[in-house]
Amino acid sequence: MTVIGLYHAGSSVLHRVPAGWKLLGMLFAIVAVLAASRPWQLGVAALVVTGGFALARIPLRVAWAQLWPLRWVILFVGVFQVIFSGPERAVMVCGSLLITVAVAALVTLTTRVTEMLDVCQRLLRPLRRFGVDPDRVGLVLALTIRCIPLLVDIVREVSEARKARGTGFSLRSMAGPAVVRALRVADAMGDALIARGVDD
Q: Residue 121 phi/psi, 5° resolution?
C-alpha cells in the first residue's frame, strides 16, 4: 500500500527546483484549479499536472497510487453532486479534488520532507517574538508526517492478521488492536524524545 506523498527519489528538473518555489507554485496551482468554472479548464489543468508527473519521471503505478485512496470519497461526492446539483457540477467538484490532490502529491513526491520542513521553519522564524518556536513546530510536522505511514502499516498488519485467522470484517476487531498498537508506538516515540531531551 502506498502512502500519499512519500518522496520518490529522482534527478529530474522538478526534483531540483527549491522546495520554497515548489510550495509557492503548488499554492498558485491549487488556487487556479479552484477558480476554474468550466470542465474544459479542468481538462487543461489535468493535462498540465499529467505532464508534471511525466517530467518528474514518476512511474505510472506511483502516480496512480496517489489518487486511488480517494475512490470512495470521489464516488460519494460525485453521487451527491449529481443528485443535488447536476452532472456538470459533479465533474467540477470531483475533478478539482482529484487535481488538487495530484498537485500536492507531485510536490511531495519530488521534495524531501526535510526540505519542506526547513522552508516552514524559515517562514516561522519571524514569529519567535510572539512565542512561536519554529524548531518545535518543525518537529511536530515531522512527527505528523512520519506517523501517517506508521498508522497505515499498523492498520494493514491488523487487517492481514484478521484475514489469516479467517475472521470476517468487524469494525471492533479492526479498531481495537489498531488503537492498542498505535498507543504502543506513541509511547515508544515519546520515550525516545524524552531520552533525547525533547521534553517540557
A: -65, -40
Return the axis-axis angle of helices 87-109 and 39-55, rounded to nearest 10°.
20
Report how far apart, in Å, the C-alpha atoms of 166 and of each of 160, 162, 163, 181 are. Answer: 10, 6, 5, 21
Q: Is the pTM of this model over 0.85?
A: no
**CA geometry: angle 97, 143, 122, nearest 5 deg:** 80
Write the secondary structure of 28-53 as one string of H (helix), E (strand) and C (coil): HHHHHHHHCCCHHHHHHHHHHHHHHH
Does 134 lie in the same domain as 77?
no
Query: Which residue range forms the structural domain that includes residue 180?
Result: 124-195
Average pLDDT over residues 120-128: 82
Residues 19 and 104 grouped into a single domain: yes
Residue pair 139/198 in contact by the 8 Å Cβ criterion: yes
Is residue 147 predicted with pLDDT exceeding 70?
A: no
DSSP 11: -
Domain total of the chain = 2
Task: Write down the pLDDT at residue 113.
Answer: 78
pLDDT at 128 over 90: no
- Whether 119 is in a domain gets the answer no
Asked, for residue 29, whether it belongs to a domain, the answer is yes
- CA 136 vs CA 38, 105, 140: distances in Å: 43, 25, 6
